[in-house]
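Before going further, learn to read the protein records used in this course. A complete example follows; check for yourself that the lines match position by position.
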Amino acid sequence: MSTDVIVKKAFRRILKLVFGFDHWHTSVLEERPYALDIVKYCNARNTRGSVLEIGCGLADILRKTNYRQKMGFDIDTKVLDCAKFLSFFDGGPKIKFAQFHFPETELKEIVDVLIMVNWIFFFEEDTLRRYIEKYFHENVRAGGAIIVDTLKDPHYPNHHNVKALTTNLPCKISKLGNYTRQREVWAIEKEPFAA
């Protein structure tokens, strides 16, 4: 582990004491290759208008994306308070933060990229598929994408298959990569001409 990562993790532990968020948020971006690949994918896209992450945590992914409009939604207000604090010092575009309870909270925003990773395994396939379809049709612009992850680790309650989650969608599926805990990250891409 590099000195830089050690220092960042120590700072995260201090933030945890101050803001009171869950311990797993103390991991830093450099420790999560899947998150780095999501940032790379987002920043390589032609359209960099708006990105929204449901389950943004401390907004590590969002803060590294090069988008004009950034939105981070999470269920945990302690995490959101810390994310606002960290984002204040970045100097990039201001991130709009809001509390969000999936699937109860209505998603009203229309974006170029919608990120939903590191939490969808808590939801059964039918519910997840229904909302991915809804967001795809109502909240993602033509040419945009929804990014999700699937896991096969037995410690997680639901193991999703991206083809089953997108069976009714007119989309292209691109794999961003394979990672520890049998995680796979996918971009569910909406064709530019899709309604």
Observations:
- The chain has a mean pLDDT of 94.
